[in-house]
Prior knowledge:
By secondary structure, this protein is mainly alpha-helical.
Amino acid sequence: MKPNSIIALTAFLSALTQLDEPLPDNIQTQLNEISKALIDNPDNIGNLDAIAESYPFLDKIYQTELAKLENIGERTKGLPPLPLPTEPTKELTNAAINTFSNQNSVSAAKEIVQPNLLGRLRELIHGK
C-alpha cells in the first residue's frame, strides 16, 4: 500500500468516528464494495477522496484529519523528513474491512476504530 493510501485510510476511518448520522445509502454501498475489494487485495482502498467529497459533512472532517496526518514527517532543525510507512498494519486493514462492510459504517467505526488504534496508527505514520 502506498504511504498516501495509509494516510487516506486512517483519515477516513477517523472521520467516520466523528460523524453523528449514518452515511447516505449510495456512500454506504460504495464502502461495502471497498470492503470486498480490501478482502481480495489489501492495497485496494478505492477512491476514498471522491467518496468523502460527495458528502460534505464527511468531507470537512476528512480534510481536517488528512491535514493533520499529512504534516507528518516534517521535522525541525532542517532534518530530513521521516520516511512514511509502506505497509498497513493488519489492524488497520481489518478495521477498514469490518467498518466498511457494515450496513452502518459510522456506528461500526465508533465501535471498531478505538482511539488507541488511531493513536498507534498516527505513531506509525509519524515514525515513532
